[in-house]
Design goal:
This protein has 65 residues and is α+β, with helices and mostly antiparallel strands. It has 1 helix and 5 strands.
Length: 65
């Protein structure tokens, strides 16, 4: 099983700033494009009590407490 939260967005720099403010998250890992104008990958662990889980059958579950 894999546990992660994943979102694909346009204007990723702005989106990450908004998500961090909205959910009290912090960027823990980032990879920006060569122009430094967008994230290619960014990790925001915004809650220790929820996760998206994909099981071995490819079914995506959102779990939260």
């Amino acid at each position: 099983m894999k546990c992660y939260t994943q979102v694909y967005v346009m204007n990723s720099l702005e989106a990450v700033e908004i998500y961090c403010k909205a959910f009290g998250a912090d960027v823990t890992f980032e990879i920006k494009n060569s122009d430094k104008t967008a994230y290619e990958h960014c990790e925001l662990p915004w809650s220790k009590y929820c996760a998206t889980v994909i099981d071995k059958y490819g079914v995506c579950w959102w779990l939260g407490i």
